[in-house]
Write a structure and sequence with these properties.
A hairpin with a 2-residue loop joins strand 2 and strand 3 (about 85-95). The chain has a 5-stranded antiparallel β-sheet with strand order 1-2-3-5-4, covered by helices on one side. The chain contains 5 helices and 5 strands, in the order E-H-H-E-E-H-H-H-E-E. The chain has helices at about 35-50, 55-75, 100-105, 115-120, 125-135; strands at about 20-30, 75-85, 85-95, 135-145, 145-155.
């Protein structure tokens, strides 16, 4: 597996953080009719918990971009959504083609979207760059022919 993104914060001791909410969403590849439902529910839950609007926006961008990548490229995937009193954590795993060159995929404008995906308004090459811009921590692992795992964290109180 390739590990080009990540920082020392990945292995934090989360045992001390109080978990406020956890849910796993299943996302089906090719199902554009239900695309966006997971990120909408994530937005609603964060608002219910009175999370700062800027943090809600960042989390929804991450969730939506990741969800759409699963819909467009993978067979199936999951979004593991966890809120603690310290952070919002989104872990997205899929069974798909994997990413052969993560560094290239992180470049704004790079896309492997098909013409069909572009015709319906996707494939601008901003998915992973938008995830990175909105994450305080990001790690991407991918096995070509097997799938990809994205771990994103947003600190609720960045000064802590």
């Amino acid at each position: 597996m390739r590990h080009p993104e990540g920082t020392r914060h990945e292995r934090r001791n989360v045992a001390m953080a109080e978990e406020l909410f956890r849910k796993v969403f299943t996302v089906y590849g090719g199902n554009f009719d239900r695309a966006g439902e997971s990120s909408t529910e994530i937005k609603d839950r964060l608002k219910d918990l009175n999370i700062d609007a800027n943090l809600v926006r960042r989390a929804v961008v991450i969730a939506f971009e990741a969800e759409m990548n699963v819909v467009m490229y993978a067979n199936i995937g999951t979004i593991n959504f966890i809120i603690t009193d310290e952070e919002i954590c989104l872990e997205i795993s899929d069974e798909g083609p994997g990413i052969p060159d993560i560094e290239q995929a992180m470049q704004e404008g790079f896309s492997t979207a098909s013409d069909e995906m572009r015709e319906i308004g996707f494939g601008f090459g901003m998915g992973l760059p938008n995830i990175k811009k909105n994450s305080d921590f990001l790690k991407i692992e991918s096995d070509v022919g097997k799938g990809t795992r994205v771990l994103s964290r947003i600190r609720i109180n960045p000064d802590d």
